[in-house]
Structure formats: C-alpha cells, structure tokens
Design goal:
- With about 240 residues, the chain is of the alpha/beta class.
- Helix content is about 45%, strand content about 15%.
- Strands 3-4-2-1-5-6 form a six-stranded parallel sheet, with helices on both faces.
- It binds 3-methylbut-3-enyl trihydrogen diphosphate (2 copies) and magnesium ion.
Amino acid sequence: MTLAGRGDLPRHVAIIMDGNGRWAKKRRLPRVKGHEAGIRSVEKTVEFCAETGIEVLTLYAFSSENWLRPALEVNALMQLLKRFLRREVPRLQRNRIRLQAIGDLARLDDSVRAELRQAMAATADCPGMVLNLALSYGSRGEIVRAVRRLWQAADRGEVAPETLEPETFARYLDTAGLPDPDIILRTGGESRLSNFLLWQAAYAELYFTATLWPDFTAAELQEIFTDFQHRERRFGMISEQLQS
Ligand code: IPE
Ligand code: IPE
Ligand code: MG
C-alpha cells in the first residue's frame, strides 16, 4: 500500500467509464454511437494521465456482467475494442505507454485476444505509464481465480496456508505487481462499484461524477486530481501520525 501524503498525485487511477448509452439516448442515437464517442474520452484521458505522470491508469471497459447485454451491443463493443487496439499501438509506443489487461480474458473471442496479445507485445518494453484495461473483468471472478491459483501453488508445495497474508494473496490477483488504486472514479452518475477492484479498493479515494463518459474532459480530471491532493489519507491512523 502506498502512503501517498498530502500533495501527492495519485500513482494509480482507476476509472469506471459509465454513461455511453445514456449519452447516445439523449441524442436519439443507437447505444453503439455512445461507445464510439466514449473512445475519444479514452484517448484524451490516457494522454492526460501519461503527461501528468500517473504510473497506472486502469480503465473498466467491459465487465463480466456486460456479457449479458444484447448480442448486438456485445459484438459492437468487441469490434470497437479490436479497432481501438489496432489503431492505438503507434500512439502508445510514441507516448511510451505499456498496455496490460486484467479480467477473464479466456472468455474473449480468439480474434480479440489475438489483437490484445499483439498490442501488449508491441508495447511490452515501454517504460512509461501502464494502461491497464479491465476486460471481461469482475472482481469476484478475479478473487476466485486467485484462490484457484493459490490452491494449485499450495498443491505444488510452493505456499503454506499458515503463511498466507493479504500481501501474498494479492500476488495471485490479476493486478499482481500493480500498486492499489489511489483513486476510483465513476462517471455517469451512479454511486456503485459494479464488481470493480473490490479487493484493491480498500483505501482508494472514491469519486462519482454525473458527467457522462463521452462528455468527460481532461479539465474535470485535473479538478479531481487537485481535490485528491487536498484529501487526508489516514490509512487507519490519526492526523498527527501522518506529519512525521
Ligand atoms: C459504459 O457505458 C460502457 C460499458 C459498460 C461497456 P454504458 O453502456 O453502461 O452506458 P449507460 O450506463 O447505459 O448510459
Ligand atoms: C460498469 O458499468 C462496467 C463498465 C463501465 C465497463 P455498467 O453500466 O455495466 O454497470 P451497472 O450495470 O450500471 O452497475
Ligand atoms: Mg452503464
């Protein structure tokens, strides 16, 4: 856990990009037009975070529950994702951004997985910000997969149950190696986490904005960062202990 004191920028920013459908509905457009418009917000957000010096940006792009949406929408989202991955690689390389993914990637189509693998390989050596896409992601599923991996490691004699600590458990999560999110931000007006980073959110600062994701701007994100820098994160301690 990072002890980011007052004034520090977040190291890890995680965003629940919500409101694309309602953005489209307001304009009497099909929902997929909202998702297309949302991609521009993704590009602007990635660029702004990289320029600001954020270490990790996690974007919730598709939840494990989103598979339950009408097939037409799911397919459109998968096509958009493939197009995004293909088109974005040169820009990621230019900005030295390394692409990673968390989630139940086995559920993705072969063609999506191939595109994702390619984009991750093409940016694997980039030393800058990590752009972490949560795809087919659900926190409960992630925790159960972690327990499975841990169980297998225990069977192989690699871990002893008595020595298990939260920090060792976290190594089996999809987010292994990444710092916990300092900020979890949700656009679109809902105040819920929708199965996002439940374990990792333990000490995240939460932000909810009514702005629909396609309308979200770098200026609003800058305001959120400024607010974050004025919050006192006590991690269970008292104010006086943080001064030292
Ligand atoms: C978020 O926007 C994008 C995904 C979940 C893929 P929504 O599609 O949930 O938009 P609303 O919530 O219906 O407005
Ligand atoms: C959360 O949004 C998932 C993503 C943004 C990818 P949803 O629109 O799926 O969440 P609920 O259904 O309103 O909780
Ligand atoms: Mg939604």
